[in-house]
Amino acid sequence: MKKDVLISAHDGGQFGAYAAYPDSETPSAAVIVIQEIFGINKVMRGICDNLAAAGFIAIAPDLFWRQEPGVQLTDKSEAEWAQAFKLYQGFNVELGIEDLKSTLAHIRSDKSCTGKVGTLGYCLGGKLAFLMAARSDADCNVSYYGVGIQDMLGEAAGIRQQLLMHIAEKDKFVPMAAQQKIRTALNSHNNVEIHVYPDVDHAFAREGGEHYDKEAARMANARTADFLAQHLTKNGGK
Questions:
Q1: Whole-model pTM over 0.90
Q2: Closest CA to 171 of 131, 135, 127, 128
Q3: Which end of the chain is more exposed for a tag (fewer CB within 10 A), N or C?
Q4: Residue 18 domain-assigned (yes or no)
Q5: Domain that holds residue 51
Q6: Is 25 a domain residue?
Q7: Which CATH number does the domain housing residue 88 bear?
Q8: Residue-by-residue pLDDT tens, the chain, 238 positions
Q9: What is the rounded CA–CA span in Å between residue 156 and residue 153?
Q10: How is the beta sheet containing 14-20 ordered, strand by strand?
């Protein structure tokens, strides 16, 4: 089942989210899919659909609702890139985290959910997944090529649940010095697992994107699937 839902914000109002449910009558674990800078577009909805096919409830909240509700962009035109960067620059990270916490509470209260919920974020969402690991009680978190994490490493002390990070070696938005800073700070953290993918650029896992790399995406997605199963399912979760 696929549907659009409304979530109550902590400070009033409601925001939309796309939700996909597995074909099962028994409760399932859930994954919050955290958007790139293009909104809840076809790519994010496809990720949700794939997670539902794998047996998870997947929900992708519209984090740009405070600026432009329901925006759906692609990476195919300069105009859309410009609009996406404008939304990114106007995005309030603190309010975004509160909206993700509201999403977490919303899906945990769903009778179809076991109560086990992870996060899975890309680009902007990769940074937010890192922050959710540090600031929320989500059961596990996955970050794909998160931007700006090197400036937030003081948050790492708050990470209590497992965090899986995928880093693109040739990421134009996360230069090598930033990557090294991240790895130096987090490699010894007991709850953090980091994988670096050689010779690939930012958004290497965005199927159909300019820098999509089939083999790197396959490897990262396989690790993510194993990670989510381990920490969210009855057999693997606590």
A1: yes
A2: 127
A3: C
A4: yes
A5: 2-232
A6: yes
A7: 3.40.50.1820
A8: 988 999 999 999 999 999 999 998 899 999 999 999 999 999 999 999 999 999 999 999 999 999 999 999 999 999 999 999 999 999 999 999 999 999 999 999 999 999 999 999 999 999 999 999 999 999 999 999 999 999 999 999 999 999 999 999 999 999 999 999 999 999 999 999 999 999 999 999 999 888 999 999 999 999 999 999 999 996 544 3
A9: 5
A10: 2-8, 14-20, 57-61, 28-34, 113-122, 140-144, 162-168, 192-197
What is the sign of the dihedral through the CA atoms of 8, 13, 18 and 23?
Answer: positive
Residue type, 14: Q
Using the structure block, give the residue that is written with the tokens 């096919």: 53
How many domains, in total, are found in the chain?
1
Active site residues: 171, 202
pLDDT of residue 24: 84
Which three-class secondary structure string do you get for the chain?
CEEEEEEECCCCCEEEEEEECCCCCCCEEEEEEECCCCECCHHHHHHHHHHHHCCCEEEEECCCCCCCCCCECCCCCHHHHHHHHHHHHCCCHHHHHHHHHHHHHHHHCCCCEEEEEEEEEECHHHHHHHHHHHHCCCCEEEEECCCCHHHCHHHHHHCCCEEEEEEECCCCCCCHHHHHHHHHHHCCCCCEEEEEECCCCCCCCCCCCCCCCHHHHHHHHHHHHHHHHHHHCCCCCC
Residue 166 lies in a domain: yes
